[in-house]
Amino acid sequence: MNTAISFEPETLTVEENLLEEIMRAADVVGEIYGVENCELSITLTDDENIHALNKKFRGIDRATDVLSFAFRESDEPEVIGTEFEILGDVIISLERAKVQAEEFGHSFLREIIFLEVHGLLHLLGYDHIAEDERLEMEAEQKFIMGKLGIGR
Questions:
Q1: Is residue 4 classed exposed, middle or buried when 0-12, 13-18 and 19+ CB atoms within 10 A define those classes?
Q2: DSSP class of 64
Q3: Does the pLDDT value for residue 142 go beyond 90?
Q4: N or C: which end of the chain has fewer CB within 10 A?
Q5: Using CA atoms, how far apart are residues 105 and 103, in angstroms rounded to an integer?
């Protein structure tokens, strides 16, 4: 997968190994679902920024852990003349991930990668509103995390 990682605000930082694992997870998901030639944007942010996005785009006035914006579902014009299809954007709150990792009793790395996988599955059309969809998405998440060798 052709993955670009950015920070918002730009002053945020993470360890290099986490960035490598984020890239690896995107590549594995790309291979599994046949979207290895797609373009993906991942933004690592804080609660303040994800709160603003959640409010603006979903009408929910609070921070969340991950947001996904699928390009295929948007009203954006088709991009012509590129060698890659644009999959979409995944935005992850580092602050929320840290809290959740502590709450669930697993590593920060595991939580970030889980949120990335969750977001990527949304970009690929998975959802968890209906019970059968939730069970299917959970099974996919578990399968991918197993392929990545990242357990609780």
A1: exposed
A2: -
A3: yes
A4: C
A5: 6
